[in-house]
Amino acid sequence: MPEHGRVPKYYTVKAQLVGLIAELGVGALLPAERDLAATYGVARSTLRQAISELIIEGRLRAHRGRGTFVAAPKLIQPLALVSYTEALREMGHQPGRVLVTLERVSADAELAGHLAIAEGAEVIHLERVLLADGEPLGLESTYLSYQRYPTLPEVLEPTGSLYQCMEQRLGVVYAEATERVETVLASPREALLLRGNPALPMLLMQRVSLDQQGIPIERVRALYRGDRIGFETRLRAG
C-alpha cells in the first residue's frame, strides 16, 4: 500500500483485468479499450497503464493491428545442467533453434580468462535463436575453445542440441557451472531476432560450464523473453 493509504486507480483496474483474463481463457481477444474503460469507469490512459503491466508480466500479448490477447502461461525451465531440448520436451513443448552465427574469432582478455586459454586464441562462436513450438524464446551466444574442440563445427547439427553433441559426439561431460541471472533491455538487433518489444525487460543469463576435470567447456550468454519464460531451481539447506 502507498503511504497515503490509497490504492492507485490503475492497480484496481489491473486486478479486475486479471479476473477477466481468467474468465476469457488463453488466446481470447480482450474487449476494445473504449469498452473496458467504460466498464471500469476509468480514463483510457489509466486502462492502458494496467494493460501495459500485464503485458510486461506475460499475462497479455499485444499484436499491432489485431488487438490484445490472453497469453499462455509462461514456460518454467529448471536451472540445471540439462539440454534445452530435453527440458522443453519434458514440459510437452517442441524445441527448435535457428542458426544466426557460426564463426571462429579471437578471444579477448575477459573471454580468455573464462575459458582458461591465452588471449587472442581462436574460439568457436555459436549464436542461435531458441524456439518453443516455433516461437522465439531466447537468443543464445556460446563460446568454446577451438583448440580443445576443433571438430565441433563439423559434427554439430546447427539446429540440434549442443549439449548432446558435446557429450555424444565429443565425449565431453558437463560436471558443474556458474550461472548469473539479471534483467536487462534487449538491443534493437536482439529484439528483432526475438520478435520482442525492446521496451520489455529480458532475462540475461551468463554461464561458464566446466567438465569433470574442472576445465572450462563454454561461456554462454543467453537472453530470454521475460514475458514468455521463467526459471526455477531447488534449494537445500547447507
Q: What do these coordinates show?
A:
- Helix content is 29%, strand content 35%.
- The protein has 238 residues and is of the alpha+beta class.
- It folds into two domains: 62 residues, Winged helix-like DNA-binding domain superfamily/Winged helix DNA-binding domain (Arc Repressor Mutant, subunit A), CATH 1.10.10; 158 residues, Chorismate lyase (3-Layer(aba) Sandwich).
- This is GntR family transcriptional regulator.
Write the layout of secondary structure elements.
Blueprint: H1 9-24, H2 33-40, H3 44-56, E1 60-63, E2 67-70, E3 75-78, H4 84-90, E4 95-106, H5 109-115, E5 122-132, E6 135-145, H6 152-155, H7 162-168, E7 174-185, H8 188-194, E8 201-211, E9 216-225, E10 229-232
Parallel strand pairs: 3-10
Antiparallel strand pairs: 1-2, 4-5, 5-6, 6-9, 7-8, 8-9
